[in-house]
Amino acid sequence: MKVLQQSPALRATFQQQIDAKKSTKHQEIHEKLGNGFLGGLGSFMYEFNQAKNKVKGNIGEWGVSLILQSFPDTWVIFNNALIPTNSGSLTEIDHLIIGHGGVFLVEVKTWKGSFSAYKDKWKRREGNNWVAVSNSPTSQSMYHQKMFNQWITSLMPNLPDGLVAAPVVFPVAQWIGAKECSVPVLQGVPALLQMIGSSPTYLNTTQVQAIAEAVALLELPVKITPVPKPMPKPKPVKRQNPTS
Fold this sequence. Notes:
single chain; alpha/beta; four-stranded mixed sheet; 11 strands; 40% helix; 23% strand
């Protein structure tokens, strides 16, 4: 499987988007806890948890990416791919895979423990209780699927229906029970490999290359602030001669 990348400029744009969200979160923390010791501690813990989750996620994604290398070179993969949204921003997909079997937007969740889901509402097991999970991974993948479909069909309107799948993969979870979710939920990487390997043929080689090229060359349109037109000069007022 060929590994392709997007431009550093696009990644920098996405990083600016992340930094803006972090800045907003820090402001919320300081508004709640103040600008003293508690506010500083709250900001530190937020950054620490963000970094810890990123490291765990990267390790899991790297492992999945390594296993996917076994696919033939007619397939293409983008790790941490960026695609545009309706709002003009970017959203990130762990693995974007393109081949004759279609397009797979793979979301990897390195969650440990037991989880259940019904219609995209998730819970995790804590002792004998089931606690609601605020961020639904299947809702997130469904959003990725919608955004990618809208974007790619705007560029290539004649693509076949149903070629985009957005599975959520749990490589290390102890138990997963999901019913009636919007996207496939898979436990373990072998289930993902089986899903991709058994998919029907949606794309020919030319279409695979065209989609891969569109992802690789993605650029967000630059927002140009309109320059205000200069105000017209006031016309001189004609003075009338006073009558004698």
